[in-house]
Write a structure and sequence with these properties.
Length: about 240
């Protein structure tokens, strides 16, 4: 798929990775970029077409699909991190995080799949995380949602292959956004993450490992749980000491 002259829709485009996606799409020659947000007045990027969208509200998702029938590239970026644990945290909060990070993306795909098919197949980008593969105290709800989103992405890739729609999973460690503001470690620039993802789409890639952190963690998946956890402890200790 060629980004040039594509018609893209980006969720959560008012800040962080979503804004970077929208900006790089414009700079790389997209014909039109729909920039969506729950509060559309917070989208401040010139040159985009702003749409209101709450990905957890089926009516809002349906309205966005009706307003943007020409989409050829869907970028599922919107998400939340609540800092909730699974056993002791609020179950309602866990459900809300799952509704946003997995079901929200799935709902977008279900609504936009017919338009993508009608417009030649197109592509879907799901912004996931290296935490698709590991958890930790204070982040296990997020881990659950990203693991579920990874599985969902792998499933819809198979289901949409027949209509010619590419589904690309994008994994990263930490990006330099508000969500990671409390971490004093190396972070990928949002524009670099967006470029890596869009390069992957143009190459027809099913998966993009956008930084060394995500590549290292993915490489450890063949380990036993004990070996994996020990390796993660060493990696996190080294990261915090850097």
């Amino acid at each position: 798929m060629d980004i040039n002259n594509s018609v893209a829709l980006v969720t959560g485009a008012n800040r962080g990775l979503g804004r970077a996606f929208a900006q790089r799409l414009l700079e790389r020659g997209a014909h039109k970029v729909y920039a969506t947000a729950r509060r559309p007045e917070t989208v401040d990027l010139p040159g985009v077409e702003v749409l209101p969208l709450d990905i957890t509200d089926p009516a809002s998702v349906r309205a966005a699909a009706e307003a943007a029938p020409d989409v050829t590239l869907l970028v599922n970026n919107a998400g939340i991190s609540t800092g909730t644990d699974l056993v002791t945290g609020s179950l309602d909060t866990v459900r809300h995080e799952l509704e946003t990070n997995m079901f929200g993306h799935l709902g977008m795909i279900r609504e936009f799949a017919p338009a993508l098919a009608g417009n030649g197949g197109g592509a879907v980008v799901n912004v996931l995380s290296a935490m698709s593969w590991f958890g930790g105290a204070g982040a296990n709800s997020y881990h659950l949602t990203k693991a579920a989103a990874w599985a969902m992405t792998n499933g819809v890739r198979l289901e949409l292959a027949g209509q010619g729609t590419l589904v690309t999973a994008v994994h990263l460690g930490l990006a330099d956004t508000d969500m990671a503001a409390g971490w004093s470690v190396d972070k990928i620039a949002p524009s670099d993450l967006a470029d890596a993802a869009l390069d992957g789409v143009e190459a027809g890639s099913a998966e993009v490992l956008a930084d060394q952190w995500s590549r290292d963690i993915k490489s450890r998946l063949p380990l036993t749980p004990e070996e994996f956890n020990a390796a993660m402890d060493r990696a996190l200790t080294a990261l915090m000491a850097a």
